[in-house]
Each structure stands twice: as structure tokens, then as C-alpha cells.
């Protein structure tokens, strides 16, 4: 906490320079060549070009500044101005509705997902962040997650006893327990070392995250389960945002809309490309589940919806089900 407070003081001091230059520190935890990393760079380019250099966006990728658990506090303190954390992390702020995105098999396509993130329900969720001193700007896609481990994961029984790395999320903890696995919350930047050292046996990721973090080098098997979604919410310190000149804020809103369209356009292609690279590496056996295997995995995981309904909020779940057309029998 003391170190973070010092960084905050330094950050605020760094913003007291030329009055005509506005600095946005944009911190994230993935590499520049991931969908999120590429979208952050696109936003930087658009924001700086459209403001004529009046705004400078400094992007800090790959946990250069903060790890998972630190970055939200840093944003609230003003040490950074912008983040794009995974949706699961927002639950730590007490806004549990965002953990609904972690529910298994909630979305069967990007189209059903975007009915939520691009619609009234998505705007309602973003508005819930205001009371935390945060302005929600956009949802960015990454992709649909696959399970990986150092043994084949063909049936729910194959997960029994495995230590599975997850990001902090009550829903994801319940998901792993439903499979008989032991959930282990580990920061994203520490996932590869934990897998390499055998501290955990496996994890879940879209192919882009698995490949760009070199996790495929220490995971011998990948099951194309596509069991859940991993996405991000772009957020900004509310006071900083509200204090911006109106014309600058309008330009940045436009830059964010275009960066979001770009992010969500490239996400699937980037994951497909990285999956092909994983296959080509020869280091990881990629298993495509049979219809029967996929159905068994789904049966094992769907009870998580009922277990987590009160935690997330039944009204939110009902709204999500209406938007996506989700039914347990699908």
C-alpha cells in the first residue's frame, strides 16, 4: 500500500507539467501482440492523432507497472488513468454482476455476446462502476477459453484432483470445483512460472493468452472446450475523466469507439492464428472433443449457473438469459 501511495504521488507530480499536454497512463497485463495489447496501441494512435498530440497515451503492457490485484487500486488512487482488466476482476470491487461473464457456456458465439456488451444491459453494467470512482468506457473481446494441462482432459473425471490456475473469481472457483479440480488463484504474470514449476497442473485460456505467454511450452495437452468467455472492460479513473476538457473527452470517446470496433474485429482471427501456432509448435497436443465429450463437460458445468445465481443476482442472470437465448438444454 505504501509503495502504491508513493507511485500515486509521483504520477500526480508527473501530470503537473505543461498545461496543454494530457497524459494517460494505460496499464495492462498481457503482451502487445494480443488482441488487448493491439487494441490499446490502436487507441493510443487514434487519441494522439485526433487531439493533435494534446493527449499522450503511455501504454504499459505485460504487467510492467502492476499485477492483477494491484491495478484496480492503482486506478482508484490515480496512479494510472486507464486499465482494461478482465471482467472477472471487477467482482473484487463488489460489483458481482460482472462475474456473470465467467459462467460456463453462457455465450455460444460472439454474436450472442455482443447482444449484451453492445446493448442496454452492457451500458447498465458499466454504469454500476460509477459509485466506485470508475467510468466504464467499453467492452473488449479476447476469446473463448480452452482447458489445458499436462494430461489429456477428455472427460470431467480427468480433472479430478488437478490444481487449476484461475484468475480471482468466485464463479471460476465454483466452476473448477464442479469438475473436481482444485482452483488456485494466481496472477496472470505468474501463471507461466507456476505451470513450469508444477505449482499448478493446468489452466484455462483463449489460445492467444496461452501462446503469447508461452504457456503452451509447459502444457502438453489442450482441450478445445470453448467453455467460457474471457473479455475485458476498459475503465478510467472517473475524476480524471470528468476533469478533462469537454472537447478532449469527446475526441477520446470517439477514439475508444473505433479502438473497440477494431479490438472486437480482430479477436477471433488472433486466437485462430495463435491456435495454429500452438499446433505447429508440436509441444502441445490439441484435442477436439467429440459431441459426447462436449455434452458431458457441459452437463458437469451447467449447475454452476444455479449455484451462483444469488451471488451474481437473479435479475442480472434473467436479463442475460433473455439477451442470449440461453437455456440449460441448449
Automatic annotation (TrEMBL):
SUPFAM superfamilies in the cross-refs: Periplasmic binding protein-like II
Keywords tagged on the record: Signal, Transport
GO BP of this protein: C4-dicarboxylate transport; transmembrane transport
InterPro entries assigned: DctP_fam, TRAP_DctP, TRAP_DctP_sf
Signal peptide: 1-18
GO cellular component: a single term: outer membrane-bounded periplasmic space
Pfam families assigned: DctP
Similarity comment: family membership: Belongs to the bacterial solute-binding protein 7 family.
Descriptive protein name: C4-dicarboxylate ABC transporter
Origin species: Crenobacter luteus
Amino acid at each position: 500500500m505504501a509503495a502504491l501511495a508513493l507511485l500515486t504521488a509521483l504520477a500526480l507530480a508527473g501530470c503537473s507539467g505543461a498545461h496543454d499536454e494530457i497524459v494517460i497512463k494505460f496499464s495492462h497485463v498481457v503482451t502487445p501482440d494480443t488482441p488487448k495489447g493491439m487494441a490499446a496501441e490502436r487507441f493510443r494512435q487514434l487519441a494522439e492523432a485526433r487531439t493533435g498530440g494534446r493527449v499522450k497515451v503511455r501504454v504499459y503492457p505485460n504487467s510492467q507497472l502492476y499485477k492483477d490485484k494491484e491495478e484496480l487500486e492503482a486506478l482508484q488512487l490515480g496512479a494510472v488513468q486507464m486499465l482494461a482488466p478482465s471482467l472477472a476482476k471487477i467482482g473484487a470491487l463488489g460489483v458481482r454482476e460482472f462475474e456473470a461473464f465467467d459462467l460456463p457456456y453462457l455465450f455460444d458465439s460472439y454474436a450472442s455476446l455482443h447482444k449484451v456488451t453492445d446493448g442496454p444491459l452492457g451500458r447498465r453494467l458499466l454504469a454500476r462502476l460509477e459509485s466506485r470512482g470508475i467510468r466504464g468506457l467499453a467492452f473488449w473481446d479476447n476469446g473463448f477459453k480452452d482447458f489445458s494441462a499436462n494430461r489429456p482432459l477428455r472427460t470431467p473425471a480427468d480433472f479430478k484432483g488437478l490444481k487449476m490456475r484461475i484468475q480471482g473469481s468466485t464463479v471460476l472457483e465454483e466452476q473448477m470445483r464442479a469438475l473436481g479440480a482444485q482452483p488456485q488463484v494466481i496472477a496472470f504474470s505468474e501463471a507461466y512460472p507456476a505451470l513450469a514449476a508444477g505449482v499448478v497442473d493446468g489452466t484455462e485460456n483463449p489460445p492467444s493468452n496461452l501462446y503469447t505467454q508461452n504457456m503452451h511450452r509447459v502444457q502438453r495437452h489442450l482441450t478445445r472446450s470453448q467453455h467460457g468467455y474471457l473479455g475485458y472492460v476498459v475503465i478510467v479513473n472517473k475524476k480524471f475523466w470528468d476533469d478533462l476538457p469537454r472537447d478532449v473527452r469527446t475526441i477520446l470517446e470517439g477514439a475508444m469507439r473505433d479502438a473497440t470496433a477494431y479490438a472486437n474485429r480482430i479477436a477471433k482471427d488472433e486466437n485462430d492464428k495463435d491456435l495454429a501456432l500452438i499446433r505447429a509448435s508440436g509441444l502441445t497436443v490439441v484435442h477436439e472433443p467429440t459431441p459426447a465429450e462436449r455434452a458431458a463437460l457441459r452437463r458437469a458445468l451447467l449447475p454452476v449457473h444455479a449455484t451462483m445465481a444469488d451471488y451474481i443476482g437473479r435479475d442480472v442472470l434473467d436479463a442475460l438469459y433473455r439477451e442470449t437465448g440461453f437455456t440449460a438444454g441448449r
